[in-house]
Amino acid sequence: MYWTEFLTVALVHLLAVASPGPDFAIVLRESVSNGRHAGIWTALGVGSGILLHVGYCLLGIGLIVSQSIVLFNLLKWLAAAYLIYIGIRALQARPADPASSELAPLATRSPRAAFVCGFVTNGLNPKATLFFLSLFTLVISPQTPLLVQAGYGLYLALATAVWFCAVALLFSQARVRRGFVRLGHWFDRLMGAVLVGLGIKVAFSELH
To answer: What is the pLDDT of residues 28-53, one digit of tens each?
Structure first.
């Protein structure tokens, strides 16, 4: 009976995780500068950071916000403003200088250091806090059992880790990274349009 809600959560998460942001930047940097293994460990750290956000939502913060019209509206406008802001920034993306695609020699990076880097980047990102509070108040019903919500959270963490592991595998290849530097601004603009649309939708949402 929760498949519709789960599919909505999965779709919203897919759009969010695929959009450019700090997590993408840190995984890309580690993959390019320190190699494939460092990129993968960073991706696993990012995925684990998701559990931190899910944890405080399950502890009731999301429910408290959803029961207060003042807090809800504050969160709603902050989330909408954030989505529209990063969407506009992405729409303004310009082609990168092809010369910047030259790769530096790989450095040594321990798995632990790479993992912690990814975890801290995601876990301490206030933008991620807004996203997950919005997800657990606007998309996931308060009547959904905590066990089911925890299942959503595990999926979000796993899906995030898998996505960024794929990013690490892809962009640790020099040839692919150079191609992305030349064409990546078109992807940024597409995701920017999607994010602006989501921001407008959030701005007009109501507390039920």
So the answer is: 878 877 888 999 999 999 999 999 88
